Amino acid sequence: MTARTTSETARDIPEATVARLPVYLRALTTLVEAGTQTCSSEDLAAAAGVNSAKLRKDLSYLGSYGTRGVGYDVDYLRYQIAREIGVTQDWPVVIVGIGNLGHALANYSGFRSRGFRVVALLDADPERHDEVVAGVDVRAFDDLEQIVADQGVAIGVIATPALAAQAVADRMVACGITSILNFAPAVLSVPDGVDVRKVDLSIELQILAYHEQRKAQSA
Amino acid sequence: MTARTTSETARDIPEATVARLPVYLRALTTLVEAGTQTCSSEDLAAAAGVNSAKLRKDLSYLGSYGTRGVGYDVDYLRYQIAREIGVTQDWPVVIVGIGNLGHALANYSGFRSRGFRVVALLDADPERHDEVVAGVDVRAFDDLEQIVADQGVAIGVIATPALAAQAVADRMVACGITSILNFAPAVLSVPDGVDVRKVDLSIELQILAYHEQRKAQSA
DNA sequence: AAGAGTTTGTGAACGCGAGAACAAAACGAG
DNA sequence: CTCGTTTTGTTCTCGCGTTCACAAACTCTT
Ligand SMILES: NC(=O)c1ccc[n+]([C@@H]2O[C@H](COP(=O)([O-])OP(=O)(O)OC[C@H]3O[C@@H](n4cnc5c(N)ncnc54)[C@H](O)[C@@H]3O)[C@@H](O)[C@H]2O)c1
Ligand SMILES: NC(=O)c1ccc[n+]([C@@H]2O[C@H](COP(=O)([O-])OP(=O)(O)OC[C@H]3O[C@@H](n4cnc5c(N)ncnc54)[C@H](O)[C@@H]3O)[C@@H](O)[C@H]2O)c1
User: Fold this and answer.
1) Where are the domains of chain A?
2) Contact map slice: A 81-110 vs B, CB within 8 A
3) What is the largest CA-CA distance in chain B?
4) Which of A90, A159, A198, B142 could hold A97 in an S-S bridge, CB 3.0 to 4.6 Å?
5) Is the dihedral of CA A213, A217, A218, A219 positive or negative?
6) Which member of B195, B202, B212 has the closest CB to residue A110?
7) Cellular component terms, GO, for this chain's entry (chains A, B) (predicted)?
């Protein structure tokens, strides 16, 4: 039992744990849908694809939500994790760059069901501005400031070509966005306090290729 | 200098380093395109967005390709990293599930330029089979075995709904695919020797949401 | 009520990765 | 040739994350 530094919920959750909480959340949702009411750390760990000791340690950072000898109440734990992550209410999100990838993202229903709401699709190309994707119309990139201010947007997604990514990020940061998910293969530089996460397809494939090559060599 | 365990090139590169090599490769490509001939570890580290000590340590696992007092020959280093990763020649890749995301992936030109060639697009839905995406026609999922055998495919991409993902993975593994890039939000179980990497959009957003919530709380 | 059987929560050991710091090597000036 | 400057390659230390292992806590049976 460590002393709480500041107020009630001021726990310091390790980054590695934060990255796994969404995985647990998804596994719990699957269990709920299957009608499961209670599960052991072993069960949940299997569903999430992790070691059960790791799972228990991760959950222990949130508090003590299990019952020894019994396990975890699936629905209760799911709510607790959702609350900790902050997805009990919806986060408004803007997507910039409505090309191939932007279209796919806009059409993706998994956002909505997991705590996010796409409030705007922006593109610099005027030819795109007629279009309506998944019920949201594509607007001019210059509408960014207005939309962010009106809707209180804190999270932005970049799906533009790499060359435009830094400029888009700068505009986002300037108008108050503090979390960016970047799909462009570019290293973004942003001020302190702004979080950037990068999703890079080619890198993932190249990592696979490296291991594939090693397999081929040793065979 | 540690003794080589087996043959000449049998170095054991840490996983964290492997994950960064593609980033360095991309940064070097950018430098080449800018006409740069030589760069220091400091320069390259800045372009890749990492610490220069980390960069040097990473590169040292590949060998000693720099010149003290001078730096690295950009083109030479780029080739060495590409060779180490295994992207000096093209890897054939199949994509399964040609929906929203599958279309975007098929249309993505960044594959080709980074060592990968999409040799087949497969979908279970017969209505998709007329279509041609980026010059490749969509074929029946049942053609998987044939294509993998004919083209020597080792890497598969899964872009089907989550429910179908495990079944698709099983079929892939059965016909000899040993590396899988999975976009479906599902935990895949595969035999030893098969690598799976997962790209999960919602998880990335949820991680951002967590930090966003903390920022809001502390403010 | 007590004991047997489960399962959680956590202390402790261990291994890997990050970064600082420095010695070795190359190069150029004089 | 020698010295100063630059930059690499590597050693060392520290901190984080993973995993084991077990005591504490709960349930159920008798
Ligand atoms: N398509 C994929 O599957 C895929 C996969 C991995 C990475 N990526 C990356 O994602 C990004 C988008 O890929 P894509 O295939 O959708 O490209 P795309 O060319 O189809 O779409 C890019 C869109 O961004 C818009 N745009 C350009 N500059 C802009 C600006 N300054 N402000 C606002 N909008 C702007 C363009 O008008 C276009 O609609 C690229 O960086 C690409 O490398 C794509
Ligand atoms: N669209 C996105 O931006 C996005 C983002 C993140 C994750 N994802 C995930 O990627 C996956 C695909 O998303 P999507 O939006 O393209 O869905 P989608 O429904 O548009 O496409 C799925 C495709 O898979 C095909 N399919 C279904 N079962 C199959 C099977 N057994 N074998 C072969 N093909 C099969 C369907 O016919 C369809 O064409 C989903 O799991 C989704 O959760 C999508």
Assistant:
1) 6-84, 91-203
2) 84-87, 91, 93, 100-101, 103-105, 107-108, 110
3) 62
4) A159
5) positive
6) B202
7) cytoplasm
CATH fold for the domain made of B6-84: Arc Repressor Mutant, subunit A (1.10.10)
pLDDT, residue A197, reads 98
CATH number for the region B91-203 comes to 3.40.50.720
- Contact between A96 and A153 under an 8 Å Cβ cutoff? The reply is no
**pLDDT tens figures, B96-132:** 999 999 999 999 999 999 999 999 999 999 999 989 9
Whole-number Å distance between alpha carbons of B48 and B22: 10
Going from the C-alpha of B116 to that of each of A100, A141, B86, B113, the distances in angstroms are: 18, 32, 11, 7
The H or E element containing residue A198 is: strand A195-198
Pairing of strands A91-96, B155-158: unpaired
Look up the protein residue whose alpha carbon has the minimum distance to the C1' of D7.
B69
Q: What is the dihedral of CA B66, B67, B73, B77, to 10 degrees?
A: -10
DSSP 8-state secondary structure symbol assigned to residue A79: H
Query: pLDDT for B7-37, tens place per residue?
Result: 344 468 999 999 999 999 999 999 999 999 9
- For the question of whether the overall pTM of this predicted structure is more than 0.85, the answer is yes
pLDDT value of residue A10:
47
Which chain A residue has the Cα nearest residue B106? A100
Q: What residue has token string 């980026």? A: B134
Vertex A200: Cα angle to A165 and B134 (nearest 5)? 90
CB proximity A163 to B under 8 Å:
no
CA distances from A217 to A181, A211, B86 (A): 36, 10, 11
Separation of CA A97 from chain center: 18
